[in-house]
């Protein structure tokens, strides 16, 4: 039994040397590639990082009154948006529920607000040119009505 173990050890020696030489070659190849990696990582550092898209609440947190009255839409929607009417936030401020009036091509598609689905998905954006049009037109109407009243009083 001892002789068979000794014979196997003698037979495995050439393979052991071959293994050592293969390991040595592998180590050389990894060392040379690691010297190339820092230049590659510096190139990666020059590339601009992609910004993480935001869910509806992360977009709304920077708007007055958490975006109530403002228009928001998913990035892949075209000519469709929601005018936010109500928001229920959870404690962390990044999750909750939202309701709004659907708008198509800037005109209301429905009279009553409905619950907005997909508010936690990271694809929401604020639409500035559609927001708060209702506040601008009444102010203009009030100014023209006031101007006609003052003209009538002067005359």
UniProtKB/TrEMBL annotation:
Region annotation Disordered: where it falls in the sequence: 32-53
Protein name per the record: 28S ribosomal protein S34, mitochondrial
InterPro entries in alphabetical order = Ribosomal_mS34 (IPR032053)
Comp. bias (Low complexity): 32-43
What GO terms are given for molecular function? structural constituent of ribosome
Query: Pfam families this protein is in?
Result: MRP-S34
* Gene Ontology annotations for the cellular component aspect, listed alphabetically: mitochondrion
């Amino acid at each position: 039994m001892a002789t068979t173990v000794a014979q196997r050890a003698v037979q495995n020696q050439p393979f052991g040397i071959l293994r050592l030489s293969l390991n040595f070659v592998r180590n050389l190849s990894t060392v040379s590639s690691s010297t190339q990696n820092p230049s590659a990582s510096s190139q990666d550092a020059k590339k601009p990082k992609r910004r993480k898209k935001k869910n509806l609440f992360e977009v709304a947190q920077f708007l007055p009154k958490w975006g109530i009255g403002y228009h928001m839409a998913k990035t892949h929607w075209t000519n469709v948006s929601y005018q936010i009417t109500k928001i229920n936030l959870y404690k962390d401020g990044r999750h909750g529920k939202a309701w709004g009036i659907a708008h198509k091509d800037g005109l209301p598609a429905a009279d009553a607000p409905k619950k907005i689905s997909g508010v936690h998905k990271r694809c929401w954006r604020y639409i500035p040119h559609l927001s708060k049009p209702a506040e601008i037109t009444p102010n203009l109407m009030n100014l023209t009505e006031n101007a006609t009243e003052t003209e009538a009083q002067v005359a």
